[in-house]
Amino acid sequence: MNENEIRNYARLMKEFGLTRLEITEDNKSLRLERAVLAGVQESSLHPDPVLTLTVPKPKEHEDYISIKSPIVGVFYASSAEDGEPYVAVGDHVKKGQTLCIIEAMKLMNEITAEEEGVILEICVSNGQIVECGTELFRIKR
Fold this sequence. Notes:
mainly beta; four-stranded antiparallel β-sheet; 11 strands
């Protein structure tokens, strides 16, 4: 992403009245934020938004894949409070097999294995609140 593209995004934010914009391209993330104060006219604000660039994400470790939460919610290892967990460390899983549930806004969302492999690590605990992108599992290929 070059400076001109960033400036174009900033202009679009102002044009549409957006206060935040996040863009991810080629393992690079850009987040633009703009403060709007109550009772202050748009023209009196500093025209440039605050820019926050994050470093590129490291490549996946070649020996395992990382399963990350696609949504914000509560992680559940099983379908019932006293039920057996879907998976445990050392279990062999198949592509499409349910690994856990993330509850978001009273909806239960099943998270499935993206590839076949063996569970190396369960990175979160039952009942833990997870963010979008939180690493849930590591699966050895």
